[in-house]
Design brief:
single chain; Trypsin Inhibitor V, Chain A; 1 helix; Prot_inh_I78; I78 family peptidase inhibitor
Length: 71
């Protein structure tokens, strides 16, 4: 039987710290802090609900991060 994979560790970083930043700057900062996937979404976008460790989501309005969450 194959071993159960160990879940990926998430960066010790607060998503709230990205709110208000320019979207491109926020994405660069997130990647340097260890987020493996950064997803920028328009307001009201339909997204999948599965939780992905290491993924940071941004809701972007007028080029700025309006909301940020893990998964």
């Amino acid at each position: 039987m194959a071993p159960i994979p160990t879940p990926q560790q998430e960066p010790q970083d607060s998503p709230e710290g990205y709110v208000g930043l320019d979207a491109a700057d926020a994405e660069r900062r997130a990647r340097t802090r260890g987020w493996t996937t950064v997803r920028s979404l328009p307001p009201g976008a339909i997204v999948t609900m599965e939780y992905r460790a290491g993924r940071l989501n941004f809701e972007v309005r007028d080029g700025r991060v309006a909301r940020s969450w893990k998964g």
